[in-house]
Structures
1.
Amino acid sequence: MIKECLNTMNIPIYIHVAECIKEKINKGILKPGDLIPSENELSKEYETSRMTIRKSLSLMANEGYIFPVHGKGNYVTKPDQTKYILYFDELNCIESHIDKRKLLGVNVMKPTEMVRFHLKIPKEANVVMIRSLMYSHGQPVIYDIKYFPYDKGVPIVEKEINYATFPEMVAKKLSPFSIKKELTIQATKSEGELNELLQLEEGHPLLLIEQKIITDKNRHIGWGQIYLPSEYCKICAESSIDKSKNIF
Amino acid sequence: MIKECLNTMNIPIYIHVAECIKEKINKGILKPGDLIPSENELSKEYETSRMTIRKSLSLMANEGYIFPVHGKGNYVTKPDQTKYILYFDELNCIESHIDKRKLLGVNVMKPTEMVRFHLKIPKEANVVMIRSLMYSHGQPVIYDIKYFPYDKGVPIVEKEINYATFPEMVAKKLSPFSIKKELTIQATKSEGELNELLQLEEGHPLLLIEQKIITDKNRHIGWGQIYLPSEYCKICAESSIDKSKNIF
DNA sequence: TAGTGGTCTAGACCACTAG
DNA sequence: TAGTGGTCTAGACCACTAG
């Protein structure tokens, strides 16, 4: 009877079962740390096969609701209240549209201590430094410096510099699945050269975002700094529990 | 032969198949947008059942490598280069250990315009404001303000205020699965009251992190601001493609 | 030893896609 | 119409857990 009702509505059984159990978790009937009924018990309760129940449980485990323990059962997760998802892309990190990009310079140089530290390269190596300013409505809003190890064989193409994001630029020959990126966000203030470049008064608050790109072989192939005047940029993140659409 | 070899090594077939295909993607043999061989072709190639192949594909889809299209096949994903995972918890966001927490005040008050905007409550409503300072080695390092709608029935327990994170405090009766959190990060500078509280000079760079907590019924049940002197805090995030351990 | 989850099979029927 | 992925079954055998 249950199955017929569901089938006419075209909702797969495994989705229905998962929804039922998730509802119990959301309402607190099943609490973090609790053991949910076993696969065999659930197959009887929902009059379906064990494999279908396993599909429901696998879905819920992927969504972060439960986790299985071999020989014991499936436990309700204690969710990680500290985890967030953040989207960042230096070409789209400010609210207003970037209408101009000015290349300030492309230099091959010996690395400073800090650049050496981040790219993990020897003193003798050369690095490429690319500096650019981005404008919105005639106002400079982003100052961007990128460094990567200098590779004689690879020409630096201006078009790529202007229209590519950092990962695209640095890892153009690598599979996008084989690179890792790290981001750090800190507060700083405008001083020295930054005042002129970004047309700011001394001491103006800035977000400093550093980006690092690392290959699957642990080669550090890019490091960059992005300076953003505080009024143009807020970084947003949200909690990451992957829930079904009907909850939010 | 293949199966026997795998079985003696105790590696499940579905893991092996997924590893093989992921390697082809990481090496660029299969590129974003490409169609991978069909489930039937793969079952022949790896001499296993279609359900086992489906388990491999499901694993890879969850890890973000491929996505299935009904009636067409499984495509290699174009990964989202802008997505990062960030961990944030106001009690553990600075490198050094917080050894003291001083409660500056707990007030029931009429909301300011900004608080009303964030909590989406009417003018007449009351809010609770909790202000505290956190210290590390005798130095104030975090100034924290939290607001939530005042609910007469619920007493405010000092212990909870002192030792709970915001989500724990505000949603103590709710299932942790039924709340959503939002974070915004911006740069600002110390001025007025902040100078004294955090013992900073006027204009010192600060990170301002705002946290909002929303229920599954879209009730805004908490909003907070956290001020952090730049030298004590860097927010870190990293790319989120969920890869198997042997890659990194 | 009884119960749990983990892997795998061979088959069925379905809905969707595209020539 | 042939090929694709989506759902579901009834069964097998295994490794792990805990009394």
2.
Amino acid sequence: MNSPLPRAFYSRETIHVARDLLGMRLVREIGRRQLIGRIVETEAYRGADDPASHAARGMTGRNEVMFGPPGHAYVYFTYGMHFCFNIVAHKSTLPGAVLVRAIEPLEGLDYMARRRGRTNLRYLANGPGKVTEAFAIARLLNGHDLTIPSQLHLMEGTLRTGERVARSRRIGIGSNDTRLWRFYVRSNPFVSRPHA
DNA sequence: CTAAAGATGTCCT
DNA sequence: GGACATCTTTAGA
């Protein structure tokens, strides 16, 4: 009961995993320090059927982790200055991953604030690039197994009473895509874009 | 080899 | 609402 989410959790339809990750707790251990937060916003990305996905046109050096075993971290660098943290999730051998777009900080607040250069809790991790900066997630963690207790893993968590899941189109993909593959906790102040 | 876009964040008006 | 920073990755010549 006090162990990380098992591989079976991630070995399911990518879109279902994206939805079910809301409320789960991300744990980052740096030395004796522990950073913890609740996932409040995600996006699903698949394979050949999803033009917006890095894996849309087959395997490349960057996206190979998306084709590997579920429950691992897919971390990539973008816009010349930001990292994005994804969780590999799919059934069978098709590629798939879930982008973690926003987190509600729970522990290690002062450390996160220092890393971010911000004190307002609301802006510590309310965006994919902010999440990786607050939690010190960089390229070194690409491919990291999230199902074993370590410097980066996920733990069980729940939505609070009254919290509802909302969905929308994905953000920042420059295409006319109408799929509702973005999931977030409605009315949660730590979501990147409450209305989108 | 070269070029263009990019699953973004910040500061400014 | 818009400019701009900054550089990796990928596709195409």
